[in-house]
Specification:
Strand content of chain B: under 5%
Distance between the termini of chain B: 37 Å
Helix content of chain A: over 70%
Shape of chain A: flat
CATH superfamily of chain B: MetI-like
Radius of gyration of chain A: 25 Å
Oligomer: heterodimer
CATH superfamily of the largest domain in chain A: MetI-like
CATH class of the largest domain in chain A: Mainly Alpha
Structural class of chain B: mainly alpha
Number of strands of chain B: 0
Number of domains of chain B: 1
Number of helices of chain A: 13
Number of helices of chain B: 10
CATH class of chain B: Mainly Alpha
CATH architecture of chain B: Orthogonal Bundle
Distance between the termini of chain A: 15 Å
CATH architecture of the largest domain in chain A: Orthogonal Bundle
Strand order of the largest sheet of chain A: 1-2
Largest sheet of chain B: none
């Protein structure tokens, strides 16, 4: 993947033929490059260090219990992250289930079956969907999706599946399910675009071999193409999951913002990012502020791990294909 | 191919059903964009008039009023962010493209990829602890700082790719003519890579223009014409959020109007970036 470029032999060049001024300029130039790169690395290190530093008071006060305590009470200064972790995980899980199925199916169609005249505009639309700002998704979710689900879809599901705890309880329109579906909309383009590229990267010889053995094109996709792109597609889904976990504004607008754990997907909930968005500027005590920063730290660590895994999965797939003779 | 009559009907049916199903999913994903865009356009169109884009927000119940200060604030904050992100991003990309071999370069690429997935709200918290807390008041500059960090991964990646795309022979030619290292890069490589770098910059600007979460505790918002980046400033995306979650119908109407403006700006930037890319691709 990475091209081996000949790097110019700066030292030798400056020993030969360059004037002293040019040699100095050359050196300044290289120092500038290294300085910019170091600035970038320091920024990332600083990001982590500042989040740890800011949440230190809460880290000391609550220790690891912060992760599984479900009390969030600014009045008594007791803080626990469990309701927010629950809301984040469940809404993101709904999102990735829906977006994974739809996105991979769309990617298969675009890469394998659609003629270019169809695939190009559809790809263009899906990529533009990724560019829609999350506050616009949130606005649409709040005034269109949530009322629609609350008045039509949710009651329908409850009538037939209401005996399941996940579909029981009051229906408000806003809640975990609405947030999950809205997040799914937002991450479908990520899954579809990356999976499409990865499917296209599968060597054609594999398809030809499969078809020559008598498989149909559909069977080729299901039994040959998708398995050989599996690691990368899983990586794309993990990457999209990372986006859903950290998405703030859209989730804040439709999840209902109530720090309670309920088995029902119709119930209002709260995510890590939306509690920070709602309460950060109103935090009165320094412990409160510190607890909110610790939620940010949790979010940062989760997203770092999730994204790191996704990149490694996708790189490993492209590497292994690049080396295939 | 699939319609071959010698195939067992079940296999043929499975193939057709599969293609229909996957086709439906792609139509669904693409159709959603049209549904959302259409809805925002219909709802937002009625709210947009000259007063809406030029006036200050009015209190609830006072007619007219607009998001003029938010539009100006967005431009100022994004411009400062670009001024911070461009040199760091382009120089880091240059470093990776020219000298970037070995473990440390791979690590920096990996960090850039991972940073692009860090939630914007976490970056907003970082900007808060660095640029707001020490000065004890919110400022537009802190928002620019957060936006710059958000722009960096994209700037670094597109710059590296743009510079790698310039044939090595061109740089070697510059060196052979006696140009020093920096001369070859500054006068030969960067001009050749510029269209792609500009495309990356436009995409990065489009990304942060719609960003809202970090603004909540950096730019904070303002009711006035605020031009000083050291003070809290109104931002369009933040105004949409505030209006949307308010209980007033008139503010909801303004939120749709703002959303239409924002979506138009972001789409124009995206389509512009793609067009610039397409033209460049054809030329080379």
């Amino acid at each position: 993947m990475s091209l081996e470029l000949d790097s110019p032999r700066t030292v030798e060049v400056s020993q030969r033929g360059l004037t002293a001024r040019q040699a100095i300029a050359d050196r300044v130039f290289r120092i500038g490059l290294v300085a910019a790169t170091l600035t970038f690395v320091i920024l990332i290190a600083g990001l982590f260090a500042e989040l740890v530093h800011g949440s230190w008071e809460s880290l000391v006060a609550f220790g690891p219990k912060f992760l599984w305590s479900s009390e969030w009470n600014p009045v008594t200064n007791h803080f626990g992250a469990l309701p927010f972790i629950y809301g984040t995980v469940v809404s993101s899980a709904i999102a990735i289930l829906v977006a994974g199925v739809v996105g991979i199916a769309a990617a298969v169609f675009l890469a394998e079956f659609a003629p270019p005249a169809v695939a190009r505009p559809i790809s263009f639309f899906i990529e533009l969907l990724a560019a829609v700002p999350s506050v616009v998704f949130g606005l649409w979710g709040l005034f269109v999706l949530a009322p629609f689900l609350g008045s039509t879809v949710d009651p329908f599901i409850q009538r037939y599946l209401g005996f399941l705890p996940m579909f029981s309880g009051g229906i408000y329109g806003i809640g975990l399910l609405t947030a999950g579906l809205l997040l799914a909309l937002m991450i479908v383009p990520t899954v579809a675009a990356i999976a499409r590229d990865l499917i296209q990267a599968v060597p054609n010889e594999l398809r030809e071999a499969s078809i020559s053995l008598g498989a149909t094109r559909w069977e080729t996709v299901v039994h040959v193409v998708l398995p050989s792109a599996r690691a990368g597609i899983v990586g794309a889904c993990v990457l999209a999951l990372g986006r859903a976990l950290g998405e703030t504004i859209a989730a804040t607008m439709v999840i209902g913002n109530r720090p309670a754990i309920s088995a029902s997907l119709f119930a209002p909930s709260y995510t890590l990012s939306s509690v920070i968005a709602n309460e950060f500027t109103e935090a009165t005590s320094s412990l409160y502020l510190s607890a909110l920063l610790e939620l940010g730290l949790i979010l940062f660590v989760i997203s770092f791990i999730v994204n790191g895994c996704a990149r490694i999965l996708m790189w490993s797939m492209l590497r292994s294909q690049g080396r295939r003779p | 191919m699939i319609a071959d009559s010698r195939l067992a009907p079940r296999r043929r049916l499975g193939g057709t059903a599969g293609i229909l199903l996957t086709g439906f999913c792609s139509a669904l994903a693409a159709g959603l964009l049209i549904v959302i865009l259409g809805y925002v356009a219909i709802q937002g169109w009625g709210a947009i008039n000259p007063a809406f884009v030029t006036q200050l927000p009015h209190p609830v119940g006072v007619p007219d009023g607009g998001v003029g200060n938010g539009i100006v604030g967005t431009i100022i904050i994004v411009a400062i962010a670009a001024v911070i992100a461009v040199p760091i991003g382009v120089l880091t990309g240059l470093y990776l493209a020219v000298y970037g071999r070995g473990l440390s370069a791979e690590l920096i690429r990996f960090l850039a990829e991972v940073l692009s997935g860090v939630p914007s709200i976490a970056i907003g918290l970082f900007a808060y602890t660095i640029c707001v807390k020490p000065f004890a008041h919110f400022s537009a500059f802190s928002a620019s700082f957060a936006f710059a960090v958000l722009m960096l991964p994209l700037m670094i990646r597109t710059s590296e790719e743009a510079i790698r795309g310039v044939p090595t022979s061109i740089r070697e030619g510059a060196l052979a003519l006696g140009l020093p290292d920096y001369g070859g890069v500054v006068h030969v490589v960067l001009p050749a890579a510029r269209p792609l770098i500009v495309t990356g910059l436009l995409l990065a600007i489009a990304r942060v223009t719609g960003e809202t979460a970090p603004l909540l505790f950096t730019a904070f918002g303002s009711q006035f014409w605020e031009l000083n980046p050291a003070n809290p400033m109104a931002v369009l995306a933040l105004q949409i959020f505030t209006y949307a979650i308010s209980p007033y119908d008139d503010w909801h109407r303004q939120a749709w109007g703002g959303a239409l403006l924002l979506i138009l700006a972001v789409l124009v930037l995206n389509v512009g970036a793609r067009l610039a890319l397409g033209r460049h691709g054809k030329k080379s």
